[in-house]
């Protein structure tokens, strides 16, 4: 039985071969030699690529280390989300989405409804999606939710959905497979944007779907082929290279995020601090039961008094990039309401902790908060 760190370092590597690299370089090919009538594992670049294969084996080993699983990688997280939804739903079906999920879900809802699919929504907290589950074909969960960081009980919801004949997909982006394993908790699909913590350097767009059901994997893979939402070989290779440090990054980021959340709780001008690792967080008890110890994610959310106050704070930070993403080795923060679409106050901050020394990062945040206060 190997630990997560060991598994992440070895995930998806081929058997050692003399004088060959441990992780082969990216294979750049639009087509492959096909002598005679024999059809091998690789025929055309939209169908498969050896670089994808190794990455998919690696991700599968992390999402489902104790049972066989199938992973399909995509050009982005949204491509992966779309593949599950549009490969499984037909006109007349109903799907349950979180009302507080990723900000592009409303656009997805519009598209689903245009195809005659009924979309129901409910908040993540308190397992509220249970109330609108009857008759649905698919239940989509996002836990912890982005950006509000609420947590739902995957096992409870999955059991209820399966009793009603529904499939269950979990967006595992924020938790990562080292923080939470949805398939072990009963989900049919674990879906994530590998753009975030999985690759972790802010330089790759990637998505993936993992399932233990071969038929479901085939349907998702066919969707990828049909719409051409394939990852590039270079992006796939960079993602695989990054798996080796995932355990280190998740550990450092989670510890730093909890330390930052605790520091923010001491500031009078800061309201609504959320992080699943905080003992005072409304989701803490469920997060402890469902997520891996000490791996509650890199994201902290909180609210400053107003838009101007939040913008002064962001401008005063020196160790943090004002950017719209999370999970990078470099800390990022943004005033989330800048985009619209999220039901958050104007002063709401989504803060993603990188791998900087927590003491340095917290000191920078305190300085920025002090500067923002002085400008009030």
Task: Give a summary of the structure in a few sentences.
The protein is of the alpha/beta class. Helix content is 35%, strand content 15%. It has helices spanning 4-10, 50-63, 77-88, 105-114, 154-163, 214-227, 233-243, 246-264, 284-290, 307-316, 358-374, and strands spanning 70-74, 94-98, 118-122, 138-142, 167-171, 189-193, 207-211, 271-274, 299-303, 321-322, 332-335, 348-352.
Report on the architecture of this protein.
This protein has 376 residues and is an alpha/beta fold. It is 35% helix and 15% strand. It folds into 2 domains: 240 residues, Type I PLP-dependent aspartate aminotransferase-like (Major domain) (Aspartate Aminotransferase, domain 2, 3-Layer(aba) Sandwich); 129 residues, Aspartate Aminotransferase, domain 1, CATH 3.90.1150. The chain has a 7-stranded mixed beta sheet, sandwiched between helices. Strands 8-9-12-11-10 form a 5-stranded mixed beta sheet, covered by helices on one side. α5 links the parallel β4 and β5. The longest helix has 19 residues. The radius of gyration is 21 Å and the shape is globular.
Question: Structural class from helices and strands?
Answer: alpha/beta
Low-confidence segments, given as residue ranges, are: none
DSSP helical segment count: 11
How does the overall form come out from the CA principal axes?
A: globular
Mean pLDDT: 96
- Using DSSP, what is the number of strands? 12
GO molecular function: cystathionine gamma-lyase activity; pyridoxal phosphate binding
Protein name: Cystathionine gamma-lyase
Pfam families: Cys_Met_Meta_PP
Cofactor: pyridoxal 5'-phosphate
């Amino acid at each position: 039985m190997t630990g997560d760190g060991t598994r992440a370092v070895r995930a998806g590597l081929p058997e050692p071969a003399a004088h060959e690299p441990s992780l082969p370089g990216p294979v750049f090919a639009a087509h492959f030699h096909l002598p005679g009538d024999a059809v091998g594992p690789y025929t055309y670049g939209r169908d498969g690529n050896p670089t994808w294969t190794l990455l998919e084996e690696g991700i599968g080993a992390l999402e489902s280390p104790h049972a066989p699983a199938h992973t399909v990688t995509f050009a982005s997280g949204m491509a992966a989300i779309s593949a599950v939804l549009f490969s499984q739903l037909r006109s007349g079906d109903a799907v349950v989405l979180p009302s507080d999920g990723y900000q592009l879900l409303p656009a997805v809802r519009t598209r689903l409804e245009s195809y005659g699919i009924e979309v129901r929504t409910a908040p993540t907290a308190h397992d509220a999606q249970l109330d609108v589950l009857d008759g649905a074909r698919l239940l989509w969960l996002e836990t912890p939710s982005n950006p509000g960081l609420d947590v739902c009980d995957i096992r409870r919801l999955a059991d209820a959905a399966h009793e009603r004949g529904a499939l269950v997909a979990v967006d595992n982006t924020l938790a990562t497979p080292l923080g939470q394993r949805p398939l072990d908790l009963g989900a049919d699909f674990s879906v994530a944007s590998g753009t975030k913590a999985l690759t972790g350097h802010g330089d790759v767009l990637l998505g993936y779907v993992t399932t233990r059901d071969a038929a479901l994997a085939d349907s998702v893979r066919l969707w990828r082929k049909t719409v051409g939402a394939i990852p590039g070989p270079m992006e796939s290779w960079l993602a695989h290279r990054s798996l080796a440090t995932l355990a280190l990054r998740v550990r450092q980021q989670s510890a730093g995020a909890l330390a930052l959340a605790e520091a923010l709780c001491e500031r009078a001008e800061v309201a609504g601090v959320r992080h699943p690792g905080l003992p005072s967080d409304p989701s803490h008890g469920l997060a402890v039961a469902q997520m891996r110890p000490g791996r509650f994610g890199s994201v902290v959310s909180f609210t400053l008094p107003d838009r101007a106050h939040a913008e002064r704070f962001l401008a005063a930070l020196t160790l943090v990039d004002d950017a719209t993403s999370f999970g990078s080795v470099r800390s990022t923060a943004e005033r989330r309401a800048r985009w619209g679409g999220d039901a958050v106050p104007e002063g709401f901050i989504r803060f993603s902790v990188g791998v900087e020394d927590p003491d340095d990062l917290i000191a920078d945040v305190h300085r920025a908060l002090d500067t923002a206060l002085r400008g009030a």
